[in-house]
């Protein structure tokens, strides 16, 4: 029997994409727990159906998956992959027909032992399932277990990217402003980069104006450092003004395709915004069909 799928939103797409990534990475280990004749069926569910079980799939695989999802002692990675598959199916309205509340009660501590990206993916799966009433949890996941990255480490990485702006590049950034304010912007930019790297600590205009302008120009030499500066501010405020949500909706392909060393830090910063705020909503106002077709999710982090 199918449950209703969770309403489509960026958060839904991101949670399911992360769960699928966990399953894909753990597919070989998961298959090892099944009878040989069931492996092609499992591969089809994962590769072709996006971890969505049909009634026939559920009849063939459900008990095996539930067993692996209840045996962390038989391999933590396989246990987590099975759990991720069942959660992805549940959130997509598949035929798995188990709300997994017992699993959370019994194994919440084991989920937290997984590698940070996997742990965060599974905990976000349970959090969304609870929030949308697909799972009824007495104590739903909260706090740092939901975060892939340590906040202090992330701030350090983004600060390094921001401060990579050379003097010449800083001049290029400030040329985005009218000529009569460039010197003021340059002084403010230097002060910000030499100080906290938090734009909001340095007023509402200098150097925010030029940083925000350059962070909208992927071809600009200062694009990555400006984006890092903006991210540091947005992380501190949980993107209260939606500045990074807007940029993800407009520029996500550019972030994903970056070839510089800054890519990892910027994607980590965007992921942190998603993980720390259930209400973070790039693509606000988009219809569900358009979201499914065109929205870009944050690539899964490497363990």
From TrEMBL:
Name this protein carries in UniProt: Uncharacterized protein
């Amino acid at each position: 029997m199918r449950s209703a799928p969770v309403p489509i939103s960026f958060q839904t797409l991101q949670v399911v994409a992360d769960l699928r990534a966990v399953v894909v990475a753990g597919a070989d280990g998961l298959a090892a727990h099944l009878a040989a004749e069931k492996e092609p069926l499992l591969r089809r569910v994962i590769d072709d159906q996006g971890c969505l079980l049909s009634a026939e799939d559920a009849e063939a695989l459900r008990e095996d998956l539930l067993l692996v999802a209840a045996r962390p002692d038989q391999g933590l990675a396989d246990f987590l992959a099975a759990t991720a598959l069942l959660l992805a199916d549940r959130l997509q309205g598949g035929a798995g027909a188990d709300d997994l509340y017992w699993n959370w009660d019994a194994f919440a501590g084991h989920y937290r032992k997984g590698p940070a990206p996997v742990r965060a993916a599974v905990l976000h799966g349970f959090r969304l399932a609870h929030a949308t009433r697909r799972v009824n949890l007495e104590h739903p996941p909260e706090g740092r277990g939901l975060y892939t990255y340590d906040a202090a480490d992330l701030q350090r990485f983004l600060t390094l990217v921001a401060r990579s702006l050379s003097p010449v590049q800083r001049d290029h950034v400030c040329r985005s402003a009218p000529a009569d304010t460039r010197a003021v912007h340059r002084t403010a930019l230097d002060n910000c980069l030499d100080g906290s790297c938090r734009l909001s600590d340095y007023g509402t205009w200098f150097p925010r104006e030029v940083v925000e302008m350059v962070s909208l120009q992927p071809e600009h030499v200062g694009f990555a450092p400006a984006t890092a500066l903006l991210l540091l501010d947005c992380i501190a405020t949980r993107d209260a003004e939606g500045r990074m949500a807007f940029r993800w909706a407009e520029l996500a392909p550019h972030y994903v395709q970056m070839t510089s060393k800054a890519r990892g830090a910027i994607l980590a910063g965007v992921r942190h915004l998603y993980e720390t705020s259930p209400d973070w909503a790039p693509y606000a106002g988009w219809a569900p069909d358009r979201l499914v077709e065109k929205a870009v999710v944050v690539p899964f982090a490497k363990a």
